[in-house]
Each structure stands twice: as C-alpha cells, then as structure tokens.
Amino acid sequence: MAFTKEEKKQLVAQYEEWLRKSRAVVFLDYKKMNMKTIEGLRARAREVGAELHVTKNTLLKMALEQAEYADISQLEGTTLCAFAFEDAPALAKVIQEAVKETKEEIFKIKMGYLDSQLISDAQVKALADLPPLPVMRAMLLGTLLAPASKLVRTLAEPGRQIAAVIKAKSEQEAVPA
C-alpha cells in the first residue's frame, strides 16, 4: 500500500507523539504472526495501558530521529511496536508471556527503549521480571517508613514499661492478703 507524502508526514507525527508519550517502547519481529494473534496481544497490552502498532520502519526511523532517540540501526524486517504509556514492566511482562507461550516461533523481541535509552532484548526480558508499579511503590513506601516506625516504637518503649510496672503494682495492692 503506497502512502502519499502527506500521509507519511502524518504517520511520522503520530509515531513521534506515541514515542514522546511512552515510558518504554519495545520492537517485535512479527513475521509469522497472524492478525488473530496480533489482536490478542493488543488486547492484553491495552489492559496494562499500552498500545501495539504495525509500523513502517523508514517512517519509524524518522520519528525516532525527531524524538531524539539513541541508536536506531537495528530496525529491519517487519516491526510491531509496543508503546508503554503507563507501566513499562507490565508491558514487558505481557510481551514476555506471549513469547513464552509461542516459544519464540511466532515472534521475538528485537530491542526496545526505556525513557529513550536503547535496551537489548535481554534487558526487555529483565524488565519483565520487575514487579508491577503499585508493588514497587508499596515496597519503597515500606522501606521509607521502616525507620520512622522503629523510632516510634523505641520512643514508646520506656513509657510502656513504666505503665506495665504501675499496672503490676496496682494489681498487687488490689489483691487482699
């Protein structure tokens, strides 16, 4: 399908907008994928706040250059782009699960970008192993609050001990001999 110059400009602008909005981008080789598989993967990606698009490499390279992304020389062959607009590890997890399900027979990870920094397919797989964003936030919050709660317990301990002594003394006096 041939595009006019104006359509190509619009596509480049659309790709550039997606690149600027996304926290991570993953490029997949989809030579052996059929539309049913792509639509299933798109549905799973939408659940985690991401989008998948079949792109034209030359137009995508132009958008990557305009968005000031690092090395773009590895874009060859058919490309399916996954844009993570919310949670990069969640998208990587969806892609990694799909790769495992198909045993890399249908598609494979080419490379990706995390905050406009080039990452390899191995790094995309490592990103998939990270916990989801809410879990990471909870872990960070727990780490930050641990010293404060320990300080509160330490400061409250002498008062608790005094209260225990007074209670024991009052119970001892209340018991008739």
Write the SSE topology.
Elements: H1 5-21, E1 24-29, H2 35-47, E2 50-55, H3 57-66, E3 79-84, H4 88-102, E4 108-114, E5 117-120, H5 121-128, H6 133-174
Antiparallel strand pairs: 1-3, 1-4, 2-3, 4-5
Helix pairs in contact: 1-3, 4-5
Descriptive account of the structure:
The chain has 177 residues and is an alpha+beta fold. It has helices at 5-21, 35-47, 57-66, 88-102, 121-128, 133-174, and strands at residues 24-29, 50-55, 79-84, 108-114, 117-120. It has a five-stranded antiparallel beta sheet. Strand 4 (108-114) and strand 5 (117-120) form a beta hairpin. The longest helix is centred in the C-terminal third of the chain and has 42 residues, at 133-174. It has two domains: 5-130, Ribosomal protein L10, N-terminal RNA-binding domain (Alpha-Beta Plaits); 131-177. Helices cover 59% and strands 16% of the residues.
Number of strands: 5
Write the H/E string, N to C: HEHEHEHEEHH
Q: In CATH, what is the homologous superfamily of the largest domain?
A: Ribosomal protein L10, N-terminal RNA-binding domain
**Would you identify the CATH architecture of the largest domain?**
2-Layer Sandwich
What share of residues is helical?
Answer: 55-70%
Tell me the number of helical segments per DSSP (H or I, 4 or more residues long).
Answer: 6
Report mean pLDDT, rounded to a whole number. Answer: 83
Would you state the CATH class of the largest domain?
Alpha Beta
Shape: elongated
- What's the N-to-C terminus distance? 102 Å
Q: Sheet bearing the most strands, described?
A: 5 strands, antiparallel
Assess the beta-strand content as a share of residues: 15-25%
How many separate domains make up the residues? Answer: 2
Radius of gyration, in angstroms, nearest whole number: 27 Å
Ranges where pLDDT stays below 50 over 5 or more residues in a row are: none
Please state the structural category: alpha+beta
CATH topology of the largest domain: Alpha-Beta Plaits
Strand order of the largest sheet: 2-3-1-4-5
